[in-house]
Specification:
With 386 residues, the chain is an alpha/beta fold. The chain has 2 domains: 3-10 and 257-384, Aspartate Aminotransferase, domain 1 (Alpha-Beta Complex); 15-252, Type I PLP-dependent aspartate aminotransferase-like (Major domain) (Aspartate Aminotransferase, domain 2). Helix content is 44%, strand content 13%. It has helices spanning 15-27, 37-56, 70-85, 101-112, 130-136, 159-168, 188-191, 229-232, 240-278, 305-314, 334-338, 343-347, 360-384; strands at residues 3-4, 64-67, 92-96, 116-120, 141-145, 172-176, 195-199, 210-214, 282-284, 295-300, 317-318, 349-353. Strands 2-8-7-6-5-3-4 form a 7-stranded mixed sheet, with helices on both faces. The chain has a 3-stranded antiparallel sheet with strand order 9-10-12. It has a two-stranded parallel sheet with strand order 1-11. The two termini are 36 Å apart.
Length: 386
């Protein structure tokens, strides 16, 4: 038996979306910028997908810009807004310590170019206090970037309140919704944000395609220069098949969201309860209240997370120690460190992220396997420490 519990890293492509992509590869080969029949066929397919993606987040189709994924969407939002606002003299950017590397490393790059950046810490809940943001805002703040849902612990930030505070000081607000779009209701008008990033492969679409929602009237400097694609906002011949797949996946996610969210929340709670009751010295990281329904992050005292990950993989169970973009590093999770958890706890924590293929039987199997695996690793650790 093989069990996949790493859906926050990526999801398998939905069958309906895959079939639509195969059809697009064969029949929609025209360049969407061409005025002839073949080009207009491709353009029409992109327009349909743009509407579907807009519907998923309560946005107008014209406000959706297709990108190569969530990382590009985050970069485009932050760099584009910062450069467009530079002429105003506003050169201060704010984010928080649990953001994805796509945000944090973009902030570092802008800091090297002379921008003042503020990285806000959080407490053990994993939720950013609005008061902390209020205290950090200045009249020079150009942009605030706070993610909607965290990729490692699943916590949902109070984005509506945070965006309101940013707007009171004249700053734009960007949110990375890569881990929330398609899982929970996301409405750009309710959130009150100016920019929102999403990625298709997090909700059963293909890799290599994402989108940035840009509120009407918000100016961004182009991230890629070239042709006039995407209303002069993102140059380059469109990835028609990928965009079609994202549109279909967005439509499917919207239809299944409520029922699937409830099902996954029940499975996640079943998993948490089983682990905490059968494996001593375990604890959930972050709040258990405001979070996406499919994610839990659990610390296993006196075990290195990498060792547990490998041991579970040998049992046919795929989990992760955090963001897939950080794999290969020996550093503790920057998310858990930003929550002021100890380095040891940051190094012994495992993320379980559930998805469409998971069942009660699978969850029960994981719960039955973990005590034996953990006991063995702890005994080896005890021997090694003598």
């Amino acid at each position: 038996m093989r069990i996949y519990l790493d859906h926050n890293a990526t999801t398998p492509v939905d069958t309906v979306a895959a079939e639509a992509m195969i059809n697009a590869l064969h029949s929609l080969f025209g360049n969407a910028s061409s005025v002839h029949y073949y080009g207009q066929q491709a353009k029409a397919a992109i327009d349909i997908a743009r509407s579907a993606v807009g519907d998923l987040i309560g946005a107008e189709p014209a406000e959706v810009v297709f990108t190569s994924g969530g990382t590009e969407a985050d970069n485009f939002a932050i760099r584009g807004a910062a450069e467009a606002l530079e002429v105003t003299g506003r050169k201060h950017l704010i984010t928080c310590g649990i953001e994805h590397e796509a945000v944090l490393n973009t902030f570092k790059a802008l800091a090297r170019r002379g921008w003042k950046t503020t990285i806000l810490p959080l407490d053990a809940s994993g939720i950013l206090s609005p008061d902390r943001l209020r205290d950090a805002l200045t009249d020079d703040t150009a942009l605030v970037s706070i993610m909607h849902a965290n990729n490692e612990i699943g916590t949902i930030q109070p984005v509506t309140k945070l965006a309101s505070l940013a707007h009171e000081r004249g700053a734009l607000f960007h949110t990375d919704a890569v881990q929330s779009a398609g899982k929970i209701p996301v409405n750009v008008k309710t959130l009150g944000v100016d920019l929102l990033a999403m990625s298709a492969h997090k909700f059963y679409g293909p890799k290599g395609v994402g989108a940035l929602w840009v509120k009407r009237g918000v100016r961004l400097s182009p991230f890629i220069n070239g042709g006039k694609q995407e209303r002069n906002r993102r140059a380059g011949t469109e990835n028609v098949a990928g965009i079609v797949g994202m549109g279909v996946a967005a439509g499917e996610a919207g239809k299944k969201m409520e029922s699937e969210g409830s099902r996954l929340a029940a499975l996640r709670d079943r998993l948490e309860t089983g682990i905490l009751s059968s494996v001593p010295h375990t604890e959930v990281n972050g709040t258990r209240d405001a979070r996406v329904p499919n994610t839990t992050n659990i610390s296993f005292d006196r075990i290195e997370a990498e060792s547990l990950l490998i041991a579970l993989d040998l049992e046919g169970i795929a989990v992760s120690t955090g963001s897939a973009c950080s794999s290969g590093t020996l550093e503790p999770s920057h998310v858990l460190k930003a929550m002021n958890l100890s380095s040891h706890r940051a190094q012994n924590s495992i993320r379980f992220s559930l998805g469409a293929s998971n069942t009660e039987a699978q969850i029960d199997h994981v719960i039955s396997v973990l005590p034996r695996v953990v006991t063995k690793l702890r005994s080896l650790s005890a021997v090694g420490s003598r």
